[in-house]
Amino acid sequence: xxxxxxxxxxxxxxxxxxxxxxxAGVDAQAIRTGIDSLGLPGVQLNVETITKSGFRSTYVRVxxxxxxxxxxxxxxxKIIDNAEKITPKQKEIAKRLFEAVGHAEARVHGTTIxxxxxxxxxxxxxxxxxxxxxxxxxxxGANEIVCSFIPTGHGKISIDHGICTVPAPATAEMLKxxxxxxxxxxxELTTPTGAAIVKTLVDRFGTLPPMTIEEVGYGAGTMDxxxxxxxxxxxxxQSIVTANSDRxxxxxxxxxxxxxxxxxxxxxxxxxxxxxxxxxxxxQMKKDRPGTILxxxxxxxxxxxxxxxxxxxxxxxGIRRQHIxxxxxxxxxxxxxxxxxxxAGKLAYRNGEPADFTPEFEDCARIAREHQTPLREIYRAAxxxxxxxxxxxxxxxxxxxxxxxxxxxxxxxxxxxxxxx
Length: 421
Hints:
By secondary structure, the protein is α+β, with helices and mostly antiparallel strands. The chain has three domains: about 1-240, no CATH class; about 245-325, 2-Layer Sandwich (Alpha-Beta Plaits); about 330-400, Ubiquitin-like (UB roll), CATH 3.10.20.300. About 35% of the residues lie in helices and about 30% in strands. The protein is built from twelve helices and 20 strands. The protein has helices at about 15-25, 30-35, 75-80, 90-110, 125-140, 170-175, 190-200, 260-270, 305-315, 360-370, 375-390, 400, and strands at about 1-5, 45-50, 55-65, 70, 115-120, 145, 150, 155-160, 160-165, 180, 205, 210-220, 230-240, 245-255, 275-285, 290-300, 320-325, 330-340, 340-350, 355-360. It has a five-stranded mixed sheet with strand order 11-6-1-13-12. The chain is globular and about 75 Å long. The two termini are about 35 Å apart.
C-alpha cells in the first residue's frame, strides 16, 4: 500500500506542501499545465532548489500581477470547473479544500458559505497553491496520508479583520479534532490553506508509520526560524503490513435514549453511505440503564461523513474514534450451479490454503421464494456444489501480498507574510 507521511515540524502551508510534493517526485510541469489552464492572466509558478538552514529543499513562488479581487466560493469553483487540463478528480479535491475554508470562515463570521468573501485565500497565489496541491496529491497516488501532530505557533498576526492571535480564527476552526503540537515559535506556522489540506486529505495522525521509504521531499517555507529548519518533509513509500491486512476506522457511541427503530434506520443509512460494517451490542450503563453500543467499521476517508450520520440520526453527545488494523482473507466473487439454478457467493482464501465458499443470502433467499423451498436447503445445495469442484490450493496473488485501501482526503503561502495564504 502506497503511503505518504507529512512531517510538519514547523507547521504546514500551501506553498510548502506544493514544494514538498514536487521535491518528492511529482511532475512540476504537469502541475504547471493544470495551473495554466485556470485562465489566470500573468500567473507563473516558479520552482527552485534552495538551501534552508543547511538542508537542500524545494521552494515555490507564484508570480502574478497585482490584483484586489475578493472572490466568493462560486467564483473560485467556476475558475476550477473551466480548467480544461485539470482532471475531474483533481477538481473535486481542489473544491473540497476551498469548501473546508469556506465552512470555517462562515462559522467564524456567523454567515453562510455562499456569502463568504475569500480574502487572502481568494488571492491568485493561494488559488495556485491549493489547485497545485490538489493536482500533486492526485499524481502522488497515495492510498493513505498520515500526518504528524500540527504546531500552530504563537503570537499575533494581522488579517483583513484586524489583529488576532495565532492560530487565526478560520485555522483554529479547521483544526478542531486534530491533535496539535506545542512548538514555541512566535509566528504563524500553520496557515488556513495548510489547515484545509490537513483537515480534508489526512486519514490519521501520529508518528512516522512502519513503511519502506521510496522518496523524501523537502518543501521550504519563506520565513527563517532561528534554530529550526523551516521545512515540511514528505515521506513516500510502501506501508509495512502483513499480507491480507488493512487499517480501518472504528466509530462507537453509547445510546440509552434511542429506540430500536432509530438504531435500525441509522444502520441502513451508514451502510448505504459506505460503512464496511455496522453492528450493535447491548450494554448496562450508569445507574443500571440498559443501553446499546452502535459500532461502525469504515475506511478512514469516510469517517467524517459517517460521523455526521451518527450525530444526525441518534443525537448522541459523543463518538469514540479508533484506528485499528484488521486481518482479512482475500475474497472474490464465485458462482455455483445447483438443481434450482445458479447461486452467487464469495470465495475466501488465506496463505494458499484451500478456498471456502459462502453463498450470498439475497441470492439464496430469492431462489427459496421462487421454488418454495426451505432456505437451508438452498444453502446446503450451494455448499455441496462448491465442494465438488473446490480447488485444492490457490497460489497467493500479488494483490494479496500488497493489499490496498482507497484514499479516496483560507489564506496561505509562506510563513513570513502577515497572514498570507
